[in-house]
Structure formats: C-alpha cells, structure tokens
Amino acid sequence: MRAARRLALSKMNMLGMGPAMLKVMMAQKKVPGLREFISTAHALGVKFYPCEMSMSVMGLKEEDFVEECQGVIGAISYLSIAKESNVNLFI
Length: 91
Hints:
Strand content: under 5%
Number of domains: 2
Number of strands: 0
Helix content: 40-55%
C-alpha cells in the first residue's frame, strides 16, 4: 500500500494535531484503517481502476496506487465497465 500510507487523514491538519487526534479516536472506536478497508473491499469483490486522465493531470504513476488496482483505464473503458455494475463510485 504505497500511496495510501502517505495520504493525509483529513484536511483539518492543525500542525499535525488533527490527524493524530483522529487516529486516536478511530482506534478508541475500533474503526478500521484505510488499509483494512481496501483489503476488505477487495476481498468482497470491489474492483479499483485508476483513471488515466486524472493520473496524467496529477502527475501520478501506476506504482503510486495500491496493489488491488485492476489497471489504469480511460473514461470510455470506465463507462463500459460501470454500466454493467450494480454500484460504482467515481472518486
């Protein structure tokens, strides 16, 4: 999980106090971390597809994404896959 470890936990950074406080609160409430959410979703059949155009705009490479990603796709490929799905999210 290369890039997910580097992600900010929230926009409320407060000189590092925000993420630290949020992590403590999550641990107290036994809320799974991002890695566990991704692993569970993948185990349940969720598929992750990075968007080629978004990657280009943001300067991201395929190796920046979690191992669970199915491969980089463009908008037309995404729409083709999404129309056959019961649920899909574009983030």
